User: Fold these one by one.
Assistant:
Number 1:
Amino acid sequence: MKSPNTKTKVYNKELSSQLIGTRFSFGKPNQSVFTNDFTLGEDFKITGYQDDNEYSWNVYQTTLEISDIKGNVTSKFDLSSGNLDFIKGQSTKWDDVKFELIKQSRMVYKFDKAVKDNNEKIKIKATESEYLTEIKNEFRIQNIVFPQSSDEKGQKRELFYRGDEVVSFGNFNIVDGYSDFNTYINSLSLSKWTKYTTANEFFLKLSVKGQFELEVIQNYLTYNDKNIQEKGIESVFEELHQSDVDDVFARNVMNFQSGNSRITNSITRYNFNFDKVTELILPVTTNIKNAMIGFTVIGNAEIHDAGWYTSVSKTSPVDIVINTTTFQKEKYILKNLSNIKEKIIDFENKSTGLNQLGEGHLFINVVDNGRTLDAEHINNEFIRVYGNPNVGGAGGFSRGMIETLNLQKNGEYHPTHVIFMDDDIEVLPESFKRVFALLRLVKEEYKDYFIEGAMLDSLDGITQYEDTGFITKNKNTVYMPVKDNYDLRNLHHVMRNDIEYPVDNEYGAWWYCTVPIKYIHENSMSLPIFYRGDDVEFSIRNKAKIITLNGLAVWHLPFYTKKSKALENYLVVRNTIIDQAVNDFIKEVDFFETSIELYKKEIRMFNYGAADQVLDALDDFLKGPEHLFSLKGIEPIIREGKKNEIFSDDIPKEIKCNLHTVDDYWLLNPADLDLFIKTDNGHGLPEIAFNADDDKLENVAIVNQEILENPGKQFMRKRVVVYDTYNKKYVIRERNQQKYESVKKRYQEISTKFSKSGKEITEQYRQYAKTFHSQDFWNDYLEQQKG
């Protein structure tokens, strides 16, 4: 029985009938809207907008009620004024949250025939007797790209499109069913193109035939955090960046908060029926600056050409040199050169914009450190191969810079930008074209920015390993990707990837990095450090500010597949300390101390050879800059490689049965952890202190190779099993007091030497900086390395 005070809700049929099918923009007053396609559907469901909080609607008396997916009323809108074009509302959950609905004109067009104007240009006639006009001063900024190779048509396919398979016939592609181009490669980032370039209006242009429905979709993120809702994500992230919190913690918070969001969208639907190939131009209309624009095709469509366009009155001259360095990677380098020739140089261009790159705006320097390429066969008017001694990436890219300057000096080519690119990668020619388009339109205030291409995992094809990285101020972590490993098939991850996360000491790796020519000169060369850190040093030295863009990427073999302590413990450690000494950057971090902590972790894990490699790095640094100059190419790496432990794939059954524990992480209580650290995990303690269970192989703890330290598993063990989860191999490390004492003695000697002369040697490196970076030095160094 109802309470006498309960008011009965009366359904208002008249107002409901007026509102059915009405399309609104939905948002908060004086803030960006959540969606421009908030439609009150005939079945009293909200359509065009996907959110569990706004699922259904109804009208009682003069109140429009919006309910969530469970039927709970989440907001109410007052209809008593009679104005159904602008309706104010209130959240039922939060008293201070207001909403508004603004009526939108319906944007569903049915185009039934094509007509020609006096210039024989195809235009589309709408049933409303309206015409879609040409784009004035059109400039193509992105091609809609379809997968071509069998590899691209596998798991990578969803980076291009989702849905039913698109069949390619060379010059055109057929959609028969449903295809979604709101993807990593084919969506359009309004935030990046409007921020960094002069583009401010955008169009989707297609040459297409068939009967189909096309939806242009504006996607954007709605954040759950109230602070971000009020201030905007850019302001909140910058506040966090400027605060005193640890930079690794700040980076993790930004990644979490970008994920603490949901996708909202606004959809414009069109229906077409063309019996011949017709040029179609659809304007992008939005007031949401951070929207990511994509489209879907439903039905049968024969797509002959498609791309995103803008309208511009002025462009900048751009000429690019690609500098790539290779060492016996013919399979990759020749394939990339072939793709560039086919898709860029020989491409039949039909429009102004990014596809003009092949019209004399690209030159390629290939530095062959292995001297195995047939230069005479490869060289042509846009490619030149240079034989070089094996001086690593640092030497190869420095040679590339020298040859770029020679092209200018000889009047052969006058580049405005240089792309540094790895050899062992797969790259879409579209990435070069989009860089070209962005640079043609870049705003004056951003003309000195680097443009970085992301590294995607070449094994799974879809995971972003890194777009940019940064040197942290955290003593336990030196280098770190700015963003998490996003799955780029996932639209939510793609949109998070479009956000800029502010960090200090950001760098662009040279798997694909575009640099303005102002940074390439006679005193801009790399340090002679072979590789691992030359690109980082170049970015930090030049105080790089970096642009990234979804779709600019290479596929590269991930680093977890080729773990080498010779690289991680010797080369990276040595080069990091040298980089800091030469450039005096990140003074807050003592990289010598950070390296000692790495040494101690290896000791506590019984990896005495790896600990010794760290000491080799410190020892070589302390020998000074002239010693660095004297080192012969790859010889230090070969020397250090002999200290690498050898893993085996012949795994005993006693270990196999416990491999499921490899990722378990065991904690220690504070007292045991203190003992673990003070004694370097029990070194020097009597035998009775150690875990007797280790005598049986099935009881030995198994640790993931990726984890440097797992104190609970290691504590007072006689031995541990280290397992390489990617290569499916293992090694057993055993406690050895004699090796420990030998390495510790050396550690004490090096620490004493650093205490006495570390500052003096650091200053020597700093004084040598101009020499190392000079073209004259590199000419002599390359000549010396030939011997």
Note: The CA atoms of residues 571 and 617 lie 7 Å apart.
Number 2:
Amino acid sequence: MRTTMSWMIGIDTGGTFTDVIALDRATGRLRTIKTPSMPHDPSEAVLNGIAAFLEMEPDVESGDIGFLAHGTTVATNAVIERKGVRTGLLITKGTNAVYVARMSRQPSATDMLNPEFRKPALLIPARQTREIGERLTHDGSVLSPLDPGEVVRAVKELTEAHGVTSIAVCYLFSFMDPAHERATRDLIRKAFPDVRVSLSSDILPIVREYRRLSTTVLDAYVGPTLDRYLRRLGDGLTARGVTTPQVFIMQSNGGLMSIDVASANPVQTLLSGPAAGVISGRYLSELLGLPNIVTFDVGGTSTDIATIVNGEITETTEGTVAGHDSSVPMNEIGTIGAGGGTIARIGADGRLHVGPDSAGAVPGPVCYRRGGEEPTVTDADLVLGFLDPARFLEGRLALDLDGATRAIADRLAGPLKLTVAEAAFGIVKIVNSNMESELRLNLMARGLNPRDFALVAIGGAGPVHASMVAASMGIGTVVVPPYPGLGSAMGLLLTDIRHTYLQSNPGLLDGYDCDAMNALFDGLEERARDEARREGTDADALAITRILEIRYAGQGYELPVPCGGDRLEDADKPAIRAAFHRLHERTYGHCAQETAVEIVNFRVDSLAVLPKLRLPDCPPADGGSPDRAIARRRPVCFDGTNKRIDTPVYWRPNLRAGDRFDGPAIVEQADTTTVVIPGQRAEIDRHGNLILTFAA
């Protein structure tokens, strides 16, 4: 008898491939699939992934899918490619320089050394900005009332003269009283019902005008694009008989949210794509007892790098996407344009350059036979022997070795007077160097030593390049999970529904009225429970954490101090103050116990726990030889010379827990290929992870 609604599915849509992992909660059975991405319509890639799963499991029906979570780069790409909608901005009169100045921040040291660096253009140019003559004071009282006629005239001009279809509203001190912003929204909806409105008092009701404004602009800019995508996805799921109400999207903070809630909060999805890979890394950190991990997620178009320190994901509220600032909570992820589809060219200086341009899914690398003409990293990997032209993705995509060789020979090796092997290895060495640079910056900017970390290789190209990058950086351990090519898809089945609710209301801790504090927390908790009900989860079962974001009076930054779930009383304040002093000393190396402590933000974190994927134990080797898994041998070039080493190729599904073998070796599986370089030892642990270490 079939158990209905028992299947959980995670789908990650990347630039080149869409990855699907499905778990039958009733039996623990796993299914994995890779299908081509559809850049013209990412929702089609998700639907194709579901169709491929149902084709693989003919006894499963659409109605048996009880849970669907997916990660998407729709919002990210809208910002990177500047393909969001034409957006207008309404601000308080006299504050038009806030967005333009961007806090007068200098470019990073790396950007300042780049002669081609240009600060990204504003998402909303000055001609699409209008000042409104309203004004609140710092405590939320009205200094100048809102003029409804002025709002309507401004929006009429923006829509008719500039074709604006979305409006960001950010008035001064609206976090203290949102009445003016809400009245503005109501006026726009009545007079211009087709125009979308984003309010800063809804999206990020906190102090720091520029960050609040920039985040609201991002929300308005990507909102209609994400909304169209989610509507197409929802309609497609309904048409295909997927009826579960549990359809979620990954947020930038590594938690899930329903697609209905996501449609109203698009800015929360800006790092939806790479965030799930970090969740996989945290799971492996806990599973393997490795507290310090770097996730190395290499896909077709980019490499995403994140750190897990002492088992905790590094988060930030000062993130950027393509140079545009966002203050919603997000996993701290460094991204560079270096992936399997990254294009190699000879630059104006006559030297070989790799990236950041990518061939993407269409036309893709030359070897994909889809019309690509410029050599890519994947073409170089193929020419060097890392990839098998006949067995890539289990033979579902036959690679054109001759075409890749000709492209490298004609466009790079010939003009540079190199052999094809030298040019191909040059591509790999340069792209690895680019990855290493981002990894070093990510660690060393925070005073972390790469040698204290293990590297977790995920993404379709991560296991191909991870060992070479680790060797160069002195990282001693590389972990390749059982389904590395589907690392982000796996992370979608390893997380929970998470939300953060913030409200600025500054005041000194000692003098703050406890009834007012409790009222602010109660309001945030009610928002959390309302949203839980919208997402179909049990509002009464939510795990709620109350947090005060505190600073010393006069400071420009604050730290989060949990303050329990009970109602606050004056007797609780000394413990809160002491906890802040300890946290400040632990974070910055000092504290100032005689200085007054100021509350800046009230914060509530909510968590709805979901069922999760767990890796099954791998069958033991029982003393058998790993040679059972050798499927073939092939010549592989590991050093850029014309010398190739006859290298064993292992079929990973035939490896068992306890198997050990030395590099050089190639390990193939359905979703990726792992390169074990000379000097490494490979071992399969009891969970099926491939652990690569360097000889002492």
Note: The chain has six domains: 7-78+228-269, 84-224, 272-336+432-491, 342-430, 497-608, 626-680.
